[in-house]
Amino acid sequence: MSTPSNTALQPLDVLAIRKDFPLLSRVLHGKPVIYLDSAVSGQMPVPVIERMAKYERQEHTNVHRGVSTLSQEATDFYEAAREKVRKFIGAASAREIVWTRGATEGINLVAQTFGRMAVKEGDEILLSAMEHHANIVPWQMLAQEKGATIKVIPMTDAGELILESLDELLTERTKLVGVVHVSNVLGTVNPVKEIIARAHAKGIPVLVDGAQAVPHLKVDVQDLDADFYVFSGHKLSGPTGIGVLYGKLAHLEAMPPWHGGGNMIRSVSWEKTTYMAAPGKFEAGTPPIAAAIGLGAAIDYVTTLGLDRIAAHEHELLAYATERLSAIPGLRILGTARNKASVLSFVVDGIHPHDVGSLLDGEGVVVRAGHHCAQPIMTRFNVPATTRASFAYFNTREDVDVLVSAVQKAIELFK
Amino acid sequence: MTDPRELYQQVILEHNKKPRNFGKLAPCTHHAEGHNPLCGDQLDLTLVVEDGVVRDVKFEGSGCAIDVASASLMTGAIKGRPVAEAEAMIEQFRGMVRGELDPATQTPLLGKLTLFSGVRDLPSRVKCAILPWATLHAALKGEEEASTE
Fold first, then answer.
1. pLDDT beneath 50, residues of chain A
2. What is the CATH number of domain A14-45+307-414?
3. Start and end residues for every CATH 3.90.1150.10 domain found in chain A
4. In chain B, which residues have their Cβ closer than 8 Å to the Cβ of A378?
5. Interface test mutation site (partner A, options B39, B122, B124, max chain A beta carbons within 10 A)
6. Per-residue model confidence as pLDDT tens digits over B101-113
7. Which residues of A82-118 are buried (b: 16+ CB within 10 A; e: fewer)?
8. CATH 3.40.50.1820 is right for the domain spanning A49-303
9. Annotated catalytic sites of A, by residue?
């Protein structure tokens, strides 16, 4: 497991941070909530909730509409949030930031615009063996429509992609590569920069699913040279219903619009309609304005904490949890890659993950039990499901201790 | 809210560890496979029905403790019963775990199976308890597959 090398970092003041998350004071089944499920959805800190509430109370109207002061103000806040996203992921221009409902919608948008242009009968789309359903199904739908095939980059038992075969998998028929930056099941941080460089050497564009990456590590889309990069607001301490598609401007300009409607047009007549330039042409209809502003506030919040400090804190928790859980007889951790972030999946001999999940819930410990929308990974490791703990900057070593003792209690009960 | 831990009573844990009537009947008169897409639970149920009576029943498969214990207890409860009674039990069990029937007064055929009544307060686990019964329902109707989807 890699650890950030900068040891001079000021540690996070976690106790102060926790005061920004009222949910952490809740009691479930008589026990304090231990929230170890940020990979499912992050919690929003109070400043984000309040920023959205302020917008709804005092500032709300539509954006890009008319000349009223209110509309101009709302548009300014909304576009300022887009600029915050640009800076956060190191994009060259805010015109490369398209608002979506989430990572899933971003991938569907690319599949149904860029994908439909680029992929023809007999072509190939290359995905990794550890994709979330969101980065599988849209490509299967496209492949079925076009008569194309999906190929898969395999992985080791540790949960690392096998890149020796990558150059053979990248053929003259490969029209796009889709790869997850951080696996939501295994926690693996994939070497996306290397994968992109090798795909680009053959002129093949790459889409990166960054839903689990942006909350935990500094992402620079220009340094990665990603063609497309998607993520969701709600995993980044922001609200649901908002997400981001980054696309290189040249791609976005060449792509046809997706949804039609208001907001995305320059002019409409019965004879001919012309479209806005990117990103406007991909943003039909009234957007989730408060959610976009909320995501901007969430970016401010995590930026103020510092992603390097967040990463250091979470790495320490992950290492501690890995050490403590692996010491439990009969418990097996899935995903032992050298470079991991914030996610810990495990199975326990003789206890189904759903029973583990229910019993942990009884102890106030919130985890995810299931296939994590990644059934091919379950098949790869021959398990029906896993129990997954995921860590955020507000978690503590004590949270890990409660998790470990709850797992031990479950094992005891099933003896 | 019910504490999920209350569901894991000794009877359920014991039947999970040592399921009764585990295996496959060959030949059989009725057969169905059950799937719970949420958990990946799967169940293969075989029955021998003669003269309108369930003479024998076995199940195979893998799943959570609630699912396995439910299948184990169900097979024990329906063996030797007329099919019409087994069908009435299906309705009573479904009604009980969905909270529509009161286990104290409205599920007379279920006997000790009422220990699953706590599932009604854990919506995410109701499907686990129902899967064996849904599979039995499919098998008796001559359907090959049941799903709790």
1. 1-4, 6
2. 3.90.1150.10
3. 14-45+307-414
4. 40
5. B39
6. 999 999 999 999 9
7. bebbbebbebeebbbbbbbbbbbbbbbbbbbbbbbeb
8. no
9. 373
